[in-house]
Amino acid sequence: MLYYVGTGERDYYRHPVPCRQRAPWEFQAVLSGKIAMTEPSGAGPLRARHLWLSAPEHAHGWTGEAAHPAQVLVFHFLNIPEPLARRLPARGGVDLVLSKKQVMRLEEFSRFPWRQMHPAILLRSEHVLLELSLIVLEALEVAKPRSTHVENIPAMRVRQALDWFEARMETNPSLEEVAQAVGCSASQLRKHFYLIMQRAPKAAFDQLRFQRALHLLADPGAKLAWIGETCGFGDPSTFSRAFKAKLGVSPAQWRGPRV
Where residue 64 sits, what CATH number does that domain have? Predict the structure, then answer.
């Protein structure tokens, strides 16, 4: 469950964040500029394009570079996926370098209107938590000795399955088709999703559908029938029923005030 979101420019040098324990799990990313984590033993090195994940019992704060504010993205969650929690140290956390592609993806998250009562807030926060968790999990797997490389397979296949489905969503591919595309059986892929995401593949795929639908509904010129087809719902009535069951209003009602 999402507890807090912080985005934008931060001058942690002039306004450092005190070193203390926090109740939620904290993901902190620096997208531009440099920041450093401070611990009771002192401040760590300044890092650029970096992501930290801190456990609730980990006492820490933040400082920055003199005269150079940084762009950051901070998420606090009350819980994280169990497979990730099991991989982390009993106390403390992990940190990793972000790729340019990952930074661009996190920049997209920072542009979402988190402080508004947006219909997509629950879906978006779930999706962000899963993406951040996969980034950390994959970094932890890569850091393992080569002899355990086989353990990368579930996370890799889940990521490939999500990417493959998202690229072909409008055709409404079956689980068997997705599994075949990523090189495993449907039952294996289902096990991978429960291991990595703790949900069925269909639930994860439906989340991608609704996120695309919400994005397309922001365009008042896009017809509802076309949006339903583009998101793989098929006919407009199926799209409307599924949308209302998930978000409590029909697509037309959701977009009504915006037209």
Answer: 2.60.120.810
